[in-house]
Q: What sequence folds into this?
């Protein structure tokens, strides 16, 4: 085999492997609704890391993309608020996790609705949109099965004015700090 042909085949093989690897670990997502404003806007594009949860579980504060539990062909983007074992409640304009009111500087406005305490079962996640009062999310009675999660929002790629790493908030630290202070 001539050196040129061999080099060409090796290059094509490497390109195919890189393509397959990328398809298995990342995907792009376009935001279609206003439920995550002011942080994500309709038409904005984000890169989702499918690999983020290969070796760990979603954490409170992560922004995830998942298949809707209500409409199987639709994907949503929301923020994880409750993980398995948490008790989530919404009252007086605050979201409470395990009795701790969350400090949420990223939301559009405080929720004007209430929700009775709900304990999140194993393998399920409680998610809310950052635009709390205009979001179809877990406060409406559904949870996200772990098997529906595509991955963690990682990079904003469009429009150029919003390029950058997607900010995530360590909500679990707030709960841990409050629990430590109470003891």
A:
């Amino acid at each position: 085999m001539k050196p040129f042909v061999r080099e060409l085949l090796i290059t094509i093989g490497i390109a195919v492997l890189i393509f397959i690897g990328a398809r298995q670990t990342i995907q792009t997502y376009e935001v279609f609704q206003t439920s995550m404003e002011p942080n994500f806007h309709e038409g904005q594009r984000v890169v989702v890391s499918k690999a983020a949860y290969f070796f760990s579980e979603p954490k409170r504060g992560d922004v995830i993309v998942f298949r809707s539990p209500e409409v199987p062909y639709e994907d949503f983007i929301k923020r994880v608020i409750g993980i398995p074992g948490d008790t989530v409640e919404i009252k007086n304009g605050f979201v409470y996790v395990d009795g701790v009111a969350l400090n949420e500087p990223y939301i559009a406005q405080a929720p004007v609705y209430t929700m009775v305490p709900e304990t999140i079962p194993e393998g399920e996640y409680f998610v809310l949109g950052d635009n709390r009062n205009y979001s179809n999310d877990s406060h409406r009675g559904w949870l996200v099965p772990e098997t529906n999660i595509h991955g963690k929002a990682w990079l904003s790629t469009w429009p150029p004015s919003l390029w950058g790493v997607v900010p995530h908030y360590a909500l679990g630290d707030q709960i841990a700090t409050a629990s430590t202070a109470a003891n």
Remarks:
- The longest strand covers residues 149-158.
